[in-house]
From TrEMBL, chains A, B:
Keyword presence, NADP: no
Domain of life: Bacteria
Protein name: Nitronate monooxygenase
Record's keyword terms, sorted: Flavoprotein, FMN, Monooxygenase, Oxidoreductase
InterPro entries named among the record's database cross-references: Aldolase_TIM, NMO
Sample GO molecular function, one term: monooxygenase activity
Pfam families listed in its UniProt record: NMO (PF03060)
Gene3D superfamilies in alphabetical order: Aldolase class I (3.20.20.70)
Length: 375, 375
């Protein structure tokens, strides 16, 4: 299943692994795919440290970095991160903060030891994302940049391509595929509604081929619902140039996660996820729990838009991650994951997952070939 | 792509076409697949007439009949259709009837010429479905029976199998697959959330392989999101034994439908469908319109369960079908269809659709094979 993107990136298999863990990035690239580090949760200093480690461990292999630069968001136009954040805070109703804090308290989520809140903006605006991008562009082995949400601004596309790297972006609708193609992106990640994180609601089996058609030759990577080699083959059958996987890497041996969080994921069925705006302000698929139910219940505050809801939920994201195994933390924790979570029931090494994908792919292709009259 | 089910049914391709139109049934079987007539909208007398016609036209080829026998429904236990219906009517709030009738009136949907309402129960209970099944079992060329909703009762499974026919049923959840397998069904139709009509919310790409695993060797037909041969190949890659298609046949040349209804379908995108309980009482995917929006809006009556909501909506189903092109009928019409509707933009002959599926399948398989190192 070697495609043109493999040649351009110098990788063996078109398996793109989105992860927040540097160890997984390195292990996937070493197994013949390519690891893509999700940078949104890091400060520029933290990202520098992560990339230093990756550069040291990965040998001569390539990797990617995924950032989030929305094209439009409330408060857009301001440039200094500090000023922007101040202005955004003024748009958040007290009621929302109180509701979020009460949910956390009711579930026994510990406060920070020093009594502070950690309500800072995540890297979900151009102002906060740009320093992350600049850091990534200093790394010769970082060969691709992906934007997790929307078409990147033209100046960023040019900057990335002029540096000799590939730039792509995620999407869940045909009109977004067209916008990505217009912007001259090098690849497009088409995510069906099954997928974890920000997602549309058209299913992969329907959306992937529509994306391939709309991309008019720009390679499309299939996302949303890929956890086995059979699913990779389905994506290739539908004209995709590779697989963009995320959920698959949350529970591997190398993934940094609290045991309680891994446990939540390993025991979840495909019916246990929901698309909810309760964490980021945009529809995002995650494990269903008390937090998602509370923000959907009539009479309770409705989630704000992006990035305002992120200000409301940011403290909860950090506290439930830090204290994942304490009290009922998991019932109000942010666990973005796709429906494919139902297939993932045991911890595997990253290397094994990549090899399993390939073996399953080859076996499935053989089986399909055997159904043809000549066989 | 010949599978065991093909042998058992004496068909060329494992393409199962669910349709309410007898002409489509015959044309699909003649093209090498198998047509399956949806019987739920017919009285036993009407079904007799349809099957007479099919038997006359189809030569020696096989076909199937699809019925709806829910295992559980409100009012279950009553047996006489008349008594059951009377009892069910007593459970329907006046408010719901008034709300439905006002929606129809507000959109200029004509009343019946004689001023009557046609509010009768559709064949959605065991009492109403049994006579339909008995009629189908008198036809030697009817080689399969499918239950559109839930595992058929054990006595019906036995009756069908003892008659030498295959029996199967649809489902959208793994636990339903297991129930079907336990009941000894001959095949299981696994429908992803993309599909039209009654559907769960797990996407096809995730649900199909889970269904195949849970079916433990019972053949699984893939439903939900199949409109091209590439999508059939994706289903086969995921271990399915064939494709169960529905939306694809709504707009073919042979399909009986008012021009306005075909037009609504041909121009719809994949984002124009919604899962709604507003017609049948169970989540069912259909074109989004004023009717579905009204029943979802806060403050309005909430849809009742099955089959009560069918009593509320039955008159609307029949009037909007009869007067499909009048006034704003399409805005309150029942148009069950899957997300694949976005791929269907032109009228084709049934025969061409079947041949297109096969050609696309073969081409896609060749392309995938060409990506392997040996090629």
């Amino acid at each position: 299943m070697r495609t043109e993107l493999c040649e351009k990136l110098g990788i063996e298999y078109p398996i793109f692994a989105f992860t927040h863990c540097r160890d997984v990035v390195v292990a996937v690239s070493k197994a013949g795919g390519i690891g893509v580090l999700g940078a949104v949760g890091f400060t520029p200093e933290q990202l520098k440290a992560e990339l230093d480690w990756i550069d040291e461990q990965i040998g001569d292999l390539p990797y990617g970095v995924d950032i989030v630069i929305p094209q439009k968001y409330e408060g857009m136009g301001d440039t200094s991160p500090e000023e922007l954040e101040k202005q955004l805070w003024s748009m958040v109703p007290e009621e929302h903060i109180a509701f979020a804090q009460k949910l956390l308290a009711d579930h026994g989520v510990p406060e920070w030891p020093d009594g502070t809140k950690s309500m800072g903006l995540l890297g979900w605006t151009e102002a906060t994302a740009t320093p992350l991008l600049m850091e990534a562009l200093t790394r010769p082995k970082c060969r691709l940049i992906a934007n997790a949400l929307g078409t990147p601004p033209a100046d960023k596309v040019k900057m990335i391509q002029d540096s000799g790297r590939l730039v792509g972006a995620l999407c869940g609708k045909v009109k977004q595929v067209k916008a990505h193609k217009e912007a001259g992106l090098d690849f497009i990640v088409a995510q069906g509604g099954e997928g974890g994180g920000h997602t549309g609601d058209v299913g992969s089996i329907v959306f992937w081929p529509q994306a391939v058609a709309a991309a008019e030759g720009v390679p499309v990577l299939a996302a949303g619902g890929i956890g086995t080699g059979q699913q990779v083959l389905a994506a290739m059958a539908l004209g995709c140039a590779g697989a963009w996987t995320g959920s698959l890497w949350l529970t591997v041996e190398e993934a940094h996660a609290e045991p309680a969080q891994k446990e939540s994921l390993l025991k979840a069925s495909s019916e246990d996820t929901v698309r909810s705006r309760s964490w980021t302000g945009k529809p995002c698929r995650m494990l269903k729990n008390d937090w998602t139910e509370a923000w959907a219940a009539p009479g309770n505050p409705e989630p704000l838009g992006m990035p305002l809801q992120g200000l409301v939920s940011g403290d909860g994201i950090r506290r439930t991650a830090k204290y994942a195994s304490v009290g009922d933390c998991q019932k109000v924790a942010f666990n973005p994951v796709g429906q494919v979570v139902g297939q993932i029931n045991q911890v595997e090494s990253t290397r094994n997952v990549v090899f399993r994908l390939i073996t399953e792919y080859v076996d499935a292709l053989e089986r399909v070939n055997s159904l043809m009259p000549e066989a």
